[in-house]
């Protein structure tokens, strides 16, 4: 992870971001991940398993997992910032441990310790070099036969009608990620990057999610959550003078409203990719 705090392009701080992460977790779980906490049905969590959630943020995934496994399972959460860590000091959560540390450099004595590693939505923070370093760390700290699961965005296949608000938003988003050396095509590249560090049984699946308010509760939630995500990019976009695409706060807000209107007319938003893989048994 670079120390360049400018790379936290999508991350606000404080309560607003924490709420966005928690609501986003439930929305994506229900509408993009088939209500699953563990994505690969072949993964079995034994009573003495060790599980890790990297870039845990508000800890939404690990708290959800903790509800479904016995308290004898040890659960770690790691994030470079403790700003969003959940309050876990209850009797019930004795098996949960949170650590403020970069996912690109994990404790030496964790080698071969974990059965399952989870990581969701870190595209806005890790450069390609960070990813390469992190995937090696994941491989190191997994037990032989251990599993990793990732859920990340991919804008490469985000097809937009020429002249549409979506096309403008895509250009803006790409400019912002490029400016910060972040991977626009993260979801697409990760499977080959996982294979390169030695993972096998790599599975990758594009996941769509509803953003059209006319498509029931999920569509309403998606429109709200994703438009808030786009709004969270505004300060960084305006810091770069809107990349010559939008000129002011008002113009960006108008663009978000236009994008929402296009969602309601049936335009899909960009895809998320669900990926899982396994460290070889020997
Ligand atoms: C968009 S949030 C996602 C949080 C959580 N995974 C979720 O899906 O709700 C990205 C998280 O990555 C964390 N992060 C950024 N760079 C990191 C790094 N190098 N190591 C660990 N965490 C990092 C941020 O602090 C933030 O909590």
TrEMBL record:
InterPro entries reported for this sequence: Methyltransf_25, SAM-dependent_MTases_sf
A Pfam cross-reference name: Methyltransf_25
Domain Methyltransferase: 51-146
Entries under PANTHER family matching the protein: 2-METHOXY-6-POLYPRENYL-1,4-BENZOQUINOL METHYLASE, MITOCHONDRIAL (PTHR43591:SF24), METHYLTRANSFERASE (PTHR43591)
Protein name, entry field: Methyltransferase domain-containing protein
Source organism: Marasmiellus scandens
């Amino acid at each position: 992870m670079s120390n360049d705090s400018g790379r936290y392009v999508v991350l606000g701080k404080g309560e607003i971001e924490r709420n966005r992460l928690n609501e986003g977790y439930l929305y994506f779980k229900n509408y993009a991940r088939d209500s699953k906490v563990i994505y690969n049905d072949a993964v079995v969590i034994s009573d003495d398993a060790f599980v890790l959630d990297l870039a845990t943020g508000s800890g939404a995934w690990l708290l959800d997992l903790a509800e479904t496994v016995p308290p004898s399972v040890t659960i770690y959460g790691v994030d470079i910032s403790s700003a969003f860590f959940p309050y876990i000091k209850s009797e019930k959560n004795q098996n949960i441990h949170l650590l403020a540390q970069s996912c690109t450099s994990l404790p030496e004595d964790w080698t071969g310790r974990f059965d399952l590693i989870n990581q969701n939505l870190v595209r806005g923070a890790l450069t390609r070099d960070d990813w390469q370093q992190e995937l090696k760390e994941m491989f190191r700290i997994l037990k032989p036969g251990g599993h990793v699961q990732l859920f990340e965005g991919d804008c490469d296949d985000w097809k937009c009608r020429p002249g549409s608000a979506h096309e403008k938003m895509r250009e803006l988003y790409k400019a912002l990620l490029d400016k910060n050396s972040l991977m626009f095509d993260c979801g697409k590249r990760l499977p080959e990057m996982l294979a390169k560090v030695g993972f096998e049984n790599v599975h990758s699946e594009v996941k769509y999610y509803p953003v059209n308010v006319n498509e029931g509760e999920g569509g309403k939630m998606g429109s709200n959550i994703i438009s808030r995500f786009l709004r969270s990019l505004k300060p960084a976009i305006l810091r770069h003078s809107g990349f010559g695409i939008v000129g002011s706060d008002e113009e960006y807000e108008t663009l978000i409203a236009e994008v929402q209107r296009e969602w309601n007319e049936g335009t899909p938003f960009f895809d998320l990719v669900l990926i899982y893989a396994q460290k070889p048994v020997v």
